[in-house]
């Protein structure tokens, strides 16, 4: 008993299987293609959000530093006290300047007296 193999039925079955596989691949691509694109876009957006979070954290740290610096600065009351103290110092310096001018005049008169004494002593008291 010899049996004959009918290749036409095998070709039809193989073509049917191939068609189903191609159809499945096409459906798979239709449903997963946009998901891949969206997945890439989502990961890109997550990276950007992460970068923005890091920048926001740096800005928050800078704001804390600036806040501490501003809090350490003198207030209006302290600046007014400093201005008053500087005015007092200016007045004291004017007083010192006037005293120094008086002392300079006294020293000039003393130098004149000392010069006359020296001249008298150098002349040997000949007058």
UniProtKB/TrEMBL annotation:
InterPro entries xref list: Phage_Mu_Releasin
Q: Which UniProt keywords apply?
A: Membrane, Transmembrane, Transmembrane helix
The source's domain of life comes to Bacteria
Q: Name one Pfam family in it.
A: DUF2730
Membrane-crossing residue ranges in chain numbering: 12-31
Q: What is the protein name given in its UniProt record?
A: DUF2730 family protein
Q: Which organism is it from?
A: Roseinatronobacter ekhonensis
């Amino acid at each position: 008993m010899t049996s004959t193999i009918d290749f036409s039925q095998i070709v039809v079955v193989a073509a049917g299987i191939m068609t189903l596989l191609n159809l499945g691949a096409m459906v798979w691509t239709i449903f997963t293609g946009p998901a891949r694109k969206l997945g890439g876009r989502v990961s890109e957006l997550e990276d950007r959000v992460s970068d923005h979070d890091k920048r926001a954290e740096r800005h928050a740290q800078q704001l804390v530093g600036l806040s501490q610096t501003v809090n350490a600065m003198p207030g209006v009351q302290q600046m007014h006290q400093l201005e008053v103290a500087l005015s007092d110092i200016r007045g004291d310096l004017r007083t010192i300047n006037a005293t120094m001018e008086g002392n300079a005049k006294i020293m000039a008169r003393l130098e004149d007296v000392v010069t006359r004494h020296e001249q008298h002593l150098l002349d040997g008291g000949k007058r």
